[in-house]
């Protein structure tokens, strides 16, 4: 399946100064990419313990901060992902039969965001911004309220006070005692 090509609004390579709800700046390690979320209020935050997220983050879990697709945010301006653009893309099938597009900085390789395209070609109504790529100097994000998903693959102990799910949120919560998660 080809990368989605809905008509996007241009995204600025230089994120403008922020106002109270202009969203968060998304940036990579080298600073070559600067995007902005559509608001400073995400749909949700998850720490994913699946093997794919562990690989892409090179850590014990991957953190995603979800925002709805929106003009100027996603779909990305096609010049950013075109040959010679600053953002690279890889895609892979998901277990549920969708296609996940993963966007990264071509300069430093930092993963920036993921978007899922459903079998009918529509965009899933949430885009996953990688948590470490979000600038949040005022501490607006509530990291403590994040849900832990795919804990069946967790490689770290999980607190029994955290909201956890064996796989996805759709499968209902399962509170895993810390001694059980290894």
Automatic annotation (TrEMBL):
Domain of life: Eukaryota
Domain CENP-V/GFA: 21-144
Keyword presence, Zinc: yes
InterPro entries recorded: CENP-V/GFA, Mss4-like_sf
UniProt key word Lyase: yes
Protein name (Swiss-Prot/TrEMBL): CENP-V/GFA domain-containing protein
Signal peptide: none
Matches recorded under Pfam families: GFA (PF04828)
Keywords of the record: Lyase, Metal-binding, Zinc
Record-linked PANTHER family: CENP-V_GFA DOMAIN-CONTAINING PROTEIN, GFA DOMAIN-CONTAINING PROTEIN
Bias kind Pro residues: ranges: 1-13
Region (Disordered): 1-20
Family: Belongs to the Gfa family.
């Amino acid at each position: 399946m080809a990368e989605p090509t809905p008509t996007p609004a241009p995204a600025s390579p230089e994120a403008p100064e922020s106002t109270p709800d202009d969203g968060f700046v998304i940036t990579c390690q080298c600073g070559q990419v600067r995007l902005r979320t559509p608001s400073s209020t995400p749909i949700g935050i998850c720490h994913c313990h699946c093997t794919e997220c562990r690989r892409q983050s090179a850590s014990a879990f991957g953190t995603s901060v979800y925002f709805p697709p929106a003009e100027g945010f996603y779909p990305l301006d096609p010049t950013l992902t075109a040959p010679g653009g600053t953002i690279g893309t890889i895609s892979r099938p998901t277990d549920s039969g969708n296609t996940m597009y993963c966007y990264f900085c071509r300069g430093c390789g930092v993963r920036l965001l993921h978007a899922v395209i459903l079998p009918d070609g529509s965009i899933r109504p949430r885009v996953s911004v990688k948590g470490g790529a979000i600038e949040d100097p005022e501490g607006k994000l509530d990291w403590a309220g994040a849900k832990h998903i795919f804990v069946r693959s967790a490689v770290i102990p999980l607190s029994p006070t955290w909201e956890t799910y064996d796989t996805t949120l759709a499968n209902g919560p399962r509170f895993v005692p810390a001694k059980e998660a290894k």
